[in-house]
Structure formats: C-alpha cells, structure tokens
Automatic annotation (TrEMBL):
ATP-binding found in the keyword field: no
SMART domains: RGS
GO cellular component: cytoplasm
Sequence ranges assigned to domain RGS in this UniProt record: 86-202
A single MF term (Gene Ontology): GTPase activity
Keywords: Signal transduction inhibitor
UniProt-listed InterPro entries: RGS (IPR016137), RGS_sf (IPR036305), RGS_subdom1/3 (IPR024066), RGS_subdomain_2 (IPR044926)
PANTHER family (alphabetical): REGULATOR OF G PROTEIN SIGNALING, REGULATOR OF G-PROTEIN SIGNALING 18
A biological process from GO: G protein-coupled receptor signaling pathway
Stated name of the protein: Regulator of G protein signaling 18
Amino acid sequence: METTLLLCSQLNMCESKEKTFFKLIHGSGKEETSKEAKIRAKEKRNRLSLLVQKLEFHEDTHSSRWGHLAKETRVSPEEAVKWGESFEKLLSRRDGLEAFTRFLKTEFSEENIEFWIACEDFKKSKEPQQIHLKAKAIYEKFIQTDAPQEVNLDFHTKEVITKSITHPTLHCFDAAQSRVYQLMEQDSYTRFLKSDIYLDLIEGRPKRPTNLRRRSRSFTCNEFQDVKSDVAIWL
C-alpha cells in the first residue's frame, strides 16, 4: 500500500514537472516568435528607409547633373548667328566647336575635326619627347593606312608625313591639317549652317537628341603616358 502511494506521488510529481516544462517551452516559443517578428519588422523598415534615401539621392543627382549640363551647353541665338559669319569664327568658340562636332558625328566624319584638334594641341608641345610621342600617336590614329580614324588625304601628303614621322617637327602635320580644314570649310561647314543642330540654336529651340553610328573616340593625350596636354580646352 505504501509502495503504491509512493509510486502515485512520484507520477504526480513527474506530471507536474512535465506540465511546467511544456508551459515554459510553449511560453518561450511565443516570446521568441514575438521577438523575431519585431526584428523582421524593424529590418523591413530600415530597408525601406534606405531605399527611399537612395531614390531621393538619385533623383537629386540626376536633376543636378542635367541642370549643370543645360547651363554649360546654353548658347544664345545671337552667339550662334555669329558662327555663320565664318568657319574660323565657329571653331574659335568652344560652344561652336562642340556643336560642329555633334553635326559631324551625324555624318560619320568626326575624325576630321578630331584630327584638327589633335594638330592644334600638338603644335603646343615643347619637350622633344612630347613631340615624338604625340606625333606618333596622331600618325597611327589618323594618317597611316587603315588607321582607326583615317582622314582623307592625298598620296603625296601622306607620303611626306610618313617619311618625316621618325624625326617629327611641330610643323610635320601642317599640310595635312590645312587640307582637312579646307575640306571641312568648303563642304561640312556649308551643310552645318543648314542643319537642324544649327537652326535650332539660332532660333533658340532646345537641343534635340542625335542618333549616332558609334561613339566617337575623342582625341586625348591620355593615350600618352607621362605626357601633359592642353587638348582638354578644345573639347
């Protein structure tokens, strides 16, 4: 009898402990679930906040960039009209040079103005190493047969440059530059004055997007290592 009572007592104690244990487990699970839900909600709010900040930053940057570009490229109709007075006056103005370059890109002949710009920069060279490196780069890019941006020159002019390129001088491209200048003045410049790009400027209309065959690889002297260049003032 005593043994039976003792067993019953122990079973009751075990049952009580099991109930307590399950209550603790169940309660802990609820508490853990609640904590996890709060953490997830906080993380979600943080991610949303970061996303909004990024979108606002992007919009501000985008607006600022386009506003800056619009300010830079603004040309008065009066200024644009002056470009029609002569080809020399057009190229002497930075905005005029930029507009003419855009026009040549629509005709797929931007290598002409880029060669002219390169020659202008080349003639400012002072150090012998500078002269040699820039001359070589201009020759390989614009003059030699099958050059990536070969300009249209007669055989004699190309031959003279080819023979002098090993010992270049500041005037070794003068004949070629003069030839390309004449081609642009007599041909491209006339069409530029009748183009939408120019007419929009003199009438004060917004700049239109242009469809280009390819992105022009503008001449820069970054192609030369350790060689300083002033070509940036032309671009």
